[in-house]
Design a protein that fits this description.
mainly beta; five-stranded antiparallel β-sheet; 1 helix; disordered N terminus
C-alpha cells in the first residue's frame, strides 16, 4: 500500500530506462512475485490533472490524461500468464490518496500469503538459464509425471541437467504435501519467499 504525499522527482531523464519525460507524479511502486519472475509495477497519479500512468517492468501499459474523476481503478495484466492486476485509488482526506494493488481480485498481501501456501521456490544456479506447471527463468517447461510408491514425480530437464520434483504426503493434514527438487540426483534446499 502506498499513500499520496510528496512525489519523488528524478534528477535526470536517465533515471527511468526508455522514458522520454521525468516521472514527476510517481506515487506508488510494488514488486509482485509471479511464477515467471518478479515484476515491478509503478503508478503515476496527477492529483490536479487526474493523469494516470501504469508501468509494468518499465514498460508503459496504461496512460490516461486529464481525468476529472480522481478516484477509481486501473486494471491491467502482468507476466507471461497475463495475471489480472488492479490499482485502486481512494481519497482518504482532502487531497490525500491511498493506492492499493490487487492481484487476481485479492489484496497484494493476501495474494502473496496464498501464493506461499500453493507454490515452492528454489534458487538453483546451473550453466543455463495454482497448477503443477514447472517454470524456469520465466519459461514453462515440458514435464512428464509418474506415480511412484510414496507419491508422484514430475520429471523435466534444464539444458543437460535431469530434474525431478517429488511430491510425498507429510502424513499430517495441516502440512499437506511435501515437494522436493532434485537436480542430477542431488536434493536442492528450498528457500522461503
Amino acid at each position: 500500500m502506498a499513500s499520496g504525499g510528496d512525489s519523488p522527482i528524478f534528477e535526470d531523464d536517465e533515471s527511468r530506462p526508455g522514458s522520454l519525460e521525468k516521472m514527476t507524479d510517481l506515487v506508488a511502486v510494488w514488486d509482485v512475485a509471479l511464477s515467471d519472475g518478479v515484476h515491478k509495477i509503478e503508478f503515476e497519479h496527477g492529483t490536479t490533472s487526474g493523469k494516470r500512468v501504469v508501468y509494468v517492468d518499465g514498460k508503459e501499459e496504461i496512460r490516461k490524461e486529464w481525468m476529472f474523476k480522481l478516484v477509481g481503478k486501473e486494471t491491467f495484466c502482468i507476466g507471461a500468464t497475463k495475471t489480472k492486476a488492479t490499482i485502486n485509488i481512494d481519497a482518504i482526506s482532502g487531497f490525500a490518496y491511498e493506492y492499493t494493488l490487487e492481484i487476481n481480485g485479492k489484496s497484494l498481501k493476501k495474494y502473496m500469503e496464498n501464493r506461499s501456501k500453493t507454490t515452492n521456490t528454489w534458487v538453483l544456479h546451473l550453466d543455463e538459464k495454482d497448477t503443477m506447471d514447472i517454470w524456469c527463468n520465466g519459461n514453462k517447461k515440458e514435464t512428464a509425471g509418474e506415480f511412484v510408491d510414496d507419491g508422484t514425480e514430475t520429471h523435466f530437464s534444464i539444458g543437460s541437467h535431469d530434474c525431478c520434483i517429488k511430491a510425498v504426503s507429510s502424513g499430517k493434514r495441516k502440512e499437506g504435501i511435501i515437494h522436493t527438487l532434485i537436480v542430477d540426483n542431488r536434493e536442492i534446499p528450498e528457500i522461503p519467499e
